[in-house]
## 1
Amino acid sequence: MISDRMNNPFVDFNEKSSFLTGNLSDLGGSFIPESLPHREEQILQMAKLLGSLMRNGRPSNIVVYGRTGTGKTSTTRHVMRMLTDATNGYVRICYINCQINDSQYSVLVTLVNLFSADSEENIPLSGWPLDRIYSELVSRIKRSSRPLLLVLDEIDRMIAKSGSDSLYVILKLGDDVDGLSCSIIGITNDTSFSERLDSRVRSRLNQESMLLPPYNASELKDILSYRTKGILREGSLEESALNLCAAIAAREHGDARKALDLLRVAIDITIRNSSLVITDKEVIAARERLEIDILRETVKSLPLHTQIVLLSCVVTQEVTRRPSFTGEISRNYSEICQELGNSPLSNRRVSDLISDLDDIGLISTRIQSMGRNGRSKLIQLEENGDQLKKYLMEVDSLSSFVGAGLGKQSRLNLGNDNDPAN
DNA sequence: ACTCCACAGGAAAATTGGGGTA
DNA sequence: TACCCCAATTTTCCTGTGGAGT
């Protein structure tokens, strides 16, 4: 179909990226490499703890702690792969990300469906009573009669949403299926996670814990060198650019994912600029682009009403030029909802959404008492307001606020004139 | 010492939306 | 089709709170 190579941008792009010798997506977060530099010790430790699964024994449950990018998931997945290889797939391994499946119901359903044989139908994502799903799970596990390793990534999300009970049900599996050899690995970046479990769950789950320390700059450099082998032609990555990637990520709590992302984006920028060598300049540009991308992505992925609350925070602070109070945010939120044609949520719910925004880090809050004038949360933007507004305006359902919003600023609730205290 | 404000945030009730069953 | 069950979400109701004002 395309005969004119000279005018084909894909051909052009491919030739420009001639320093690439492999697949750039291999630097992405989901790729699990053959080996994990500086995690050999932890891999060995985890493998030892799980060893008895191969002998149908009852290994300990493990909680893996570590900050973002310390290799918790990669280490665990690596061990999963080793276990599969060593047992020829005899040990059944279920990996569930609790950020996606964060309710008791959805974890159980996912688990049951992972166990479904070809002949069995998947159970629906809602509708069934929990006890029915549980007994379905038990009967499917009984039929399978193979050792089970259950990995719950971001396990703290499940506890935050459904409480300890949801975990207790899963931990109980071992008791309800006679002779089941089952081990659970929980992965979390929340060091206070186990404190929030009730005692019966804590003692069962936290039999063993592993803490993955942050990587230092030199370890990060090793990781980057290892991961770029086979992807970049020799000499296409300057030593100082490599050091810079490692140094930036080391400063960000030793985050290997950050280091890999930086390098990946730096490579991308180099290709786009038709350069042939990745230098400090590209790494610095990559850092800026990543920061923007993360913020934009965060803002755009918020639920609609959380976005409107954030918009209210931005607009209110834009006008008052001081931190705002919950009441102001709530009233302006309702105004904005009205303007956009959405029915507003209750103040109680808005208060929760404000807490959510605080958790995400887009705003910071602290409770302040004004004596006779009551007590309220003082809310301050953590990010540049103009930038937040720009990203919010890119959201389809909010974009109509632009012109109208600015024009209507005068009627927004900005404290004093609408404050019942006055 | 007591009052009162404007909420925070817990608990229970109500609503919503997906699915099953007769 | 009408009704039931269920989990998740949201609303309603409520108690608790810190500190300026009295």
## 2
Amino acid sequence: MTTMKIEDEIKQTAFKTEYHKAYINMLYTSNWLVQEQSNLFKPFGVTLPQYNVLRILRGQHPKPATVSLLIERMLDKTSNASRIVDKLEVKGLVTRKQCPNDRRTVDVLITDKGLALLKQMDDLDGGSKTGIRNLTEQETAELNRLLDKIRD
Amino acid sequence: MTTMKIEDEIKQTAFKTEYHKAYINMLYTSNWLVQEQSNLFKPFGVTLPQYNVLRILRGQHPKPATVSLLIERMLDKTSNASRIVDKLEVKGLVTRKQCPNDRRTVDVLITDKGLALLKQMDDLDGGSKTGIRNLTEQETAELNRLLDKIRD
DNA sequence: TGCAAATATATGTACATACATTTAATGTAC
DNA sequence: GTACATTAAATGTATGTACATATATTTGCA
């Protein structure tokens, strides 16, 4: 993928301010990263949100997780964890059963098939093929600082 | 909105590397910005993608734009411009008519109602209520540099 | 005890994304 | 000038997001 400065990518002549440019640049780069990762994941038949839920479940394994816990850990708090778990259940990557202690809650558990799939995918995520590259460690730390500061 | 470091926000203990943390931080902050702007726009009855299309159309006005041009300028190239224009047409914010020269293409034109709506919204976007704040001009320029470098 | 409030999850609806396919119109090669 | 490829836009389908509402269960308190 040949990459250009953000002005060229969206064929816009100029931005009003450096702030406005950074805003567009943030959304654009975030989309870019998501799409890149999603392409890598396609052969494995799981979407990015589904992958993220599987990761959380592996973190809990062999303990189950409730849907509430999934929501709490998900990047996008308002997304619909129930329906993402639906898709994973159909694929046999997780199981879901009512918790005996509190029958309102549901125990979601990653299956062996799910664990095996994640193992296959491990080298993709965080590997050199995806994510933040091209930056030095110091630049990456600075990026983290700037992002945290934006949300202050 | 009280904001915390990214580790606390998604209740994760630690990240493997600074790069991994920056990746999550990018997606999280981008979502955060989008949601913030979308909340501001809600009272006006247009979504963020719809707003962005209206902005492009105003940039062309009084000339019309084709759907291809919209796609070219949109942040998310793979999104479905036709259907976003559908929604805007229903709301009377744009008109759509077949172009006489090339009957494959469609001239999309922002209406007076659309222009008036944008005028109302102008102070929100790029104003102090949304977008990149808290950063100095220099920090913002550095952020732009880092983002461009990621996509290199 | 009994009943209202709170909690956990699921469901409904509108919108958008991602991507494949379709339809119509234009361009091009022969 | 007909046949085939190309282009522009729309449509179909699966997924996800955002938000409101529904349903079941538990908790807490009068």
